[in-house]
Specification:
Strand order of the largest sheet: 1-2-3
Structural class: mainly alpha
Shape: globular
Bound molecules: acetyl coenzyme *A
Order of helices and strands: EEEHEEEHHHHHHHHHHHHHHHHH
């Protein structure tokens, strides 16, 4: 009979002991269950940034940061990116298994059915300043979906929850394109349901009433690949935000709006925009060494955007795939982008530099994605929105998983460092 692993913790001051059970997953590091710690030894644990803390159990995505492994529901990202499609991956993440031909067709139909948004939502978008950042608009507009779909939604119904998930996957490209068109001053482009997911999005982004718009097959294919790579990444900052908000029982559209806000930051999804800003700032390949020097200088806040990752300390498998795709797409689309040369030079110097080697800093997925988006004609301010469209699948899959399991409200503790109790004095007697 196999013995359950436990770790013995001894409090030297009181002599008390506690056996902590080890929670074993199917793969990955063993994790200590510390729930009994406060009631038994009277301690909480301190882990800012959750660098050593698992917040949930999940069956969706597995990452081994040391080995550079990423798998959705057990399938390696390399296989999915080569052989699958974004919608098939979405089905997999939501349902746990790859679909049969018939299931995939039905799923496509369900997503396509929900692509339109209420006309009032377009009016809502028209209320934004023309130069509003699209991520700010996205957070507001997706949050407002809760106003359209709250009263009739039964949160206890698994079916209703699945429809909400599908609705978000379907409407996100429509909303994203509408935000872009508002900025451009173009009229609304309604979703063409005869087109596939990424084709439809590109059509809504770039078609204008005055001329024919033919969606480029190469562009749609590479977008599909980028969406697969970004679809989920277990408990990252935005997904953890969705789960935290979801743990309160909040409306799913509000949960995803919170995820969008978390994604916007330059340390997370905003990095793809920050990478392009950085390339612009560097300006010329000859300036690369100067910026590498700045990135290493502790007194300079400058960091190499698109470098480093909380989990991957060897290489980001998505970056390997996207780097190759970057070459192919630029060639197929006939784009000669000096930024690609700059990126390669930056990558070459950084990867040979002691500072980056020692700190295990490698290019992450965002280092290259911006170059591809640029080649597709996507403006820089929309880069993080692209990420949000893809990650919506992960957010809703994780939200569904959480909603299908009994969950405690997320409520971290703190180490209080403020004043101890003191007496209130009226203003006239304060110094
Ligand atoms: N450039 C220069 N130095 C860096 C960089 C960088 N990009 N990233 C980390 N470091 C250094 C830090 O200064 C720190 O040095 P120290 O130990 O001497 O203090 C050390 O490496 C560890 O960095 P942390 O910030 O503590 O690592 P953490 O795991 O908390 O952060 C993060 C990871 C946020 C991704 C960080 O590497 C970063 O800011 N990178 C740039 C932004 C970026 O590309 N984000 C995208 C992430 S991927 C995604 O969201 C899809």
């Amino acid at each position: 009979m196999s013995k359950k692993k436990r770790v013995l913790l001894t409090d030297e001051s009181s002599g008390k002991e506690l056996e902590l059970p080890v929670v074993a997953g199917t793969e990955g590091e063993p994790t200590l269950d510390i729930k009994a710690l406060p009631s038994t030894l009277g301690y909480f644990t301190y882990d800012p940034g959750f660098t050593a803390t698992a917040s949930c159990t999940s069956k969706i995505t597995f990452i081994d940061g040391g080995k550079g492994i990423l798998r959705y529901r057990g399938y390696p990202i390399e296989q999915l990116s080569e052989r699958s499609t974004f919608l098939e991956v979405a089905y997999l993440l939501l349902n746990g298994e790859l679909p049969s031909e018939a299931q995939l067709q039905k799923f496509r139909g369900e997503i396509t059915y929900h692509t339109m948004v209420h006309e009032h939502l377009n009016e809502f978008i028209s209320g934004f300043q023309y130069d509003a950042h699209p991520m700010a608009m996205m957070a507001g507009v997706v949050g407002s979906l809760a106003a359209f779909y709250h009263n009739r939604m039964d949160m206890e119904s698994q079916e209703h929850r699945m429809v909400a998930a599908q609705r978000m996957i379907a409407k996100m490209p429509t909303i994203a394109a509408a935000c872009y068109r508002h900025h451009m001053g173009w009229p609304t482009a309604y979703p063409q349901n005869s087109l596939r997911y990424c084709e439809r999005f590109l059509h809504m982004m770039f078609s204008v009433p005055s001329e024919e718009y033919q969606v480029s097959e190469v562009s749609a294919r590479v977008l599909d690949l980028l969406f697969i790579l970004h679809a989920d990444h277990e408990q990252n900052a935005s997904t953890s935000t969705v789960r935290l908000v979801g743990s309160t029982g909040a409306n799913p559209y509000a949960c995803v709006a919170a995820g969008i806000s978390a994604l916007w930051g330059p340390a997370h999804g905003g990095a793809n925009e920050a990478v392009l800003d950085m390339f612009t700032q560097i300006g010329d390949i000859s300036n690369v060494p100067k910026f590498i020097k700045r990135a290493k200088d502790k007194s300079d806040p400058f960091r190499l955007m698109g470098f480093g990752h909380r989990v991957y300390k060897n290489f980001d498998p998505r970056a390997t795939i996207i780097r190759q795709a970057c070459y192919e797409v630029l060639e197929e689309l006939g784009v000669n982008d000096p930024m690609m040369d700059m990126a390669l030079e930056l990558e070459r110097i950084a990867l040979e530099d002691e500072y980056f080697i020692e700190k295990k800093l490698y290019p992450n997925v965002d280092f290259y994605s911006g170059i591809i988006y640029r080649a597709l004609g996507i403006p820089v301010s929309m880069f993080t929105v692209m990420f949000a469209i893809a990650r919506t699948v992960g957010w809703v899959a994780q939200w569904l998983e959480q909603s299908n399991t009994p969950t405690k409200i997320g409520r971290p503790r703190q180490v209080y460092k403020g004043p101890t109790e003191r007496k209130y004095e009226p203003p006239h007697s304060r110094r």
